[in-house]
Amino acid sequence: MSKAPVGPPESDRFDDAPHPRETLALFGHAAAERELLDAYKRNRLAQAWIIGGPEGVGKATLAWRVARFLLAHPDPAAPEVQAAETLAVPETHPAARRVATMALADIFLLRRQWNEKTKKHFTEIRVDDVREITRAFHQGSGMGGWRVAIIDSADDLNRNAANALLKLIEEPPERSLFLLVAHQPGRILPTIRSRCRKLMLGALTQDETVAAVAALGPESGGKADIAAAAARAEGSVRETLRLLGGDAMLFDTTVNRLLQSLPRVDWLGVHMLADKLTGRDNEASYETFMRALERHLDARVKTLSQGGAPPARLIGYARAWDDIRDLARETEVFNFDKKAMVLGVFDRLAKAEGN
């Protein structure tokens, strides 16, 4: 794997894995890539796109792939564009090198910034972050071509930041493109959604997941370990990488055991689990817990729906899901006690299962 650059950690990079801007290969999503390329060839590329889908399936990789292609080929009518079958740009192309090193005057990245006081990332994309991008965006394009803004992720925009971004999308310079990476597109401000073309990416197949992780480098793990992690990751490269770290697989198994026992709650096990999630050094365990929880919630709602559960139970479980998301969000934003959050999650889920 490539090493993260010297300086503050990047909120849109997973540990020391290659950043999406450094990742030239795209696994899966051929139809989505073709839709973007065909729109560009016809000179009908929508000004703003929401690239939605589960976390870790390649949304940011696709966004950077688009930006790299436009930087390399600013004229959609050029013969090489019309002949192109994918958005691939060779690693040796100057555009690929400029994107990888962030030596850019016309591609802008909006993401959660590093807080020097807390030595952690801000929990949201703030309005000042959007204003800084807006000022730079309205300056002349460094190459006289496209201006591309990548928002990774739009889920992180707070209300004021979202409104500031809306104004930029409504009044952009010519030849501007906005690519909004979104894990939950439905939570994006409706006025922003109405101005974007939506492109939804599905989960990768297990084979695609294994191939994508293996392509990151030998440090990502052995073939058997990658396959075992990918089998649990539900088509997410990021989740596969997370499960390959330390004792994450064992921890994930523990979380799933506790969730599967609901509505009966093993409170001793839950307390032991919660103790592992407290403290500054346990961010990876907390993220593993949240991803396992999301997978469980998603699977339960699908199972209940397909099994013909009465609407009242589905509504109750959906409300529980919303309550848990809000609880988790408040815990992260206000730095509340994670142990109390975990106990509240199991209490809320037990009630939903018991109805």
From TrEMBL:
The leader peptide range reads: none
Q: Which GO terms fall under biological process for this protein?
A: DNA-templated DNA replication
Against SUPFAM superfamilies, the record matches this protein to:
P-loop containing nucleoside triphosphate hydrolases (SSF52540)
Any one of the GO CC terms: DNA polymerase III complex
- State a single Pfam family of this protein: DNA_pol3_delta2
Which InterPro entries would you find in this protein's record? DNA_Rep/Repair_Clamp_Loader, P-loop_NTPase
- Say which domain of life the source belongs to: Bacteria
The protein's matches in Gene3D superfamilies, at most eight in alphabetical order, are given as: P-loop containing nucleotide triphosphate hydrolases
Q: What is this protein called?
A: DNA polymerase III subunit delta
